[in-house]
Write a structure and sequence with these properties.
alpha/beta, 10-stranded mixed β-sheet, two-stranded antiparallel ribbon, globular, disordered N terminus
């Protein structure tokens, strides 16, 4: 379909550097009620009339500006939520038509994150025809998935998600999986990994769940604590939620999966953390903001056009402006956002700066830096112990694969070497 023309302000100029926007076209609206979801409560920030569906004029301005603001020859759209399938297929037909209208020779791609519950043949046909890359959220076998991923009535969702995954396979839609690592599934790493491998996931993302309860007198009505402000003692003292992964469990989770992956799945299954680690071992950009030296080029746009520093920082103080009022590149390149990005490395405590695995960890996400170091300095990442365990554990095989790359060999060749040459002994 052809979108109807509408009056728009002048288009955005290109940004200084490439950037990524996580698009929330239906805000935090979702058909599930996952216990650990940090985004459901963002609805409280948007209480005005008009709903949380991205309006046509916002969609057109966003599509046009996002393409125009990319300084390179490509524009990668990422649609998320909430749950984007609640918008219906027609919304995304319009989005694709707008992308074609404003492409101006650039290559356009689309990624689409969904819980899979509403996927049907109409969705499957559309996603396949338009070559969307679909991320499907699944936390492992049924008992582990259903521990927290329930619908609005508190009922399990595993069977519905598996039906949605079957729709994607039926239509030949390219998909990957996003698995949150929480208190329940973190203690069963191989059960999770083998399940994902069996369902055909060739690219796996593991997202650690780390959330804290807000102070009882929080003025914004949000019940989860915001990212740490080291001038706010109450925020630093907030307690982690009972579903948050324990640091030691997370380190063991990644290590156990890595041991199996490196012996049989290198080059066949891609695990985001392992890819990023190898990039850091060879001195390349990791491709994942949490393991990069600085951040600030991965932002979020809400349904009404509000642009925020990051989707984990959707709080009023991190709102950069609205793309209906200000060219997108101006928001992305704003001094405030540049400072936000540099703070990732600039605020690392001495304990981190002297750490032997800093080159791989980079302090991970600043959102998780709410502990104090053994010397009493604030800013230590909650997951520090887990990451130190994991990155230390994989050092030898990573060095081996880095050497293989240097010799123009595929890292998968490591699977042909005797295990004792590169995998450190571990207590089982």
């Amino acid at each position: 379909m052809n979108p109807a023309p509408s009056p728009l302000r002048p288009s955005s100029p290109p940004a200084r550097l490439p950037f990524h926007l996580m698009t929330k076209p239906i805000g935090s609206r979702c058909n599930l009620d996952c216990s650990y979801c940090f985004y459901l409560e963002k609805e409280k920030l948007y209480t005005a009339a008009g709903g949380m569906r991205m309006k046509s004029e916002v969609l057109e301005t966003y599509v046009r500006d996002y393409i125009a603001a990319q300084p390179g020859p490509e524009a990668h759209f990422a649609w998320q939520g909430g749950e984007p399938t609640l918008l219906g297929v027609e919304f995304f037909r319009t989005a694709v038509a707008l992308q074609q209208k404003y492409a101006r020779g650039k290559t356009i791609t689309n990624a689409f994150q969904t819980n899979g519950v509403l996927l049907n043949d109409e969705w499957g046909g559309f996603l396949a025809a338009q070559r969307f890359l679909v991320g499907i959220s699944i936390d492992g076998p049924a008992p582990l998935h259903d521990a927290y991923r329930v619908d609005k009535g508190g009922q399990p969702t595993f069977d519905k998600v598996m039906h949605g995954l079957a729709v994607l396979k039926k239509h030949g839609v390219e998909f990957n999986t996003l698995t949150t690592v929480h208190r329940k599934n973190s203690t069963q790493p191989l059960a999770v990994y083998r399940f994902l491998r069996e369902v055909g996931s060739g690219y796996i993302q593991f997202i650690p769940i780390v959330e804290r309860n807000a102070a009882a007198d929080a003025t914004d009505g949000l019940w989860l604590a915001p990212p740490p402000d080291h001038e706010d003692a109450a925020a630093l003292d907030a307690q982690v939620t009972p579903w948050s992964v324990r640091p030691a469990d997370y380190g063991e989770f990644l290590s156990r999966i890595f041991d199996e992956w490196v012996q049989r799945d290198v080059g066949r299954i891609f695990v985001q953390q392992f890819d990023a680690a190898l990039a850091n071992w060879v001195g390349e950009q990791p491709g994942v903001c949490v393991f990069a030296e600085n951040c600030g080029r991965a932002l979020a746009v809400e349904h009404n056009g509000d642009v925020f520093s990051c989707d984990h920082y959707v709080y009023p103080r991190y709102r950069l402006g609205n793309l209906m009022e200000t060219p997108l590149a101006e928001l992305v390149d704003a001094p405030r956002q540049a400072e936000f990005g540099r703070a990732k490395s600039a605020t690392l405590p001495r304990y981190c700066r002297e750490c032997p695995v800093l080159f791989a960890c980079r302090g991970e996400c600043p959102k998780h830096r709410f502990l104090t170091t053994p010397h009493g300095e604030p800013g230590l990442n909650y997951l520090c112990a887990g990451y130190k365990k994991f990155f230390t554990h994989i050092d030898s095989p990573m060095r081996t694969m880095a050497a293989m790359l240097g010799a123009q060999q595929a890292p998968a060749a490591i699977m042909q070497l005797p295990r004792k040459q590169w995998l450190p002994a571990r207590r089982r």
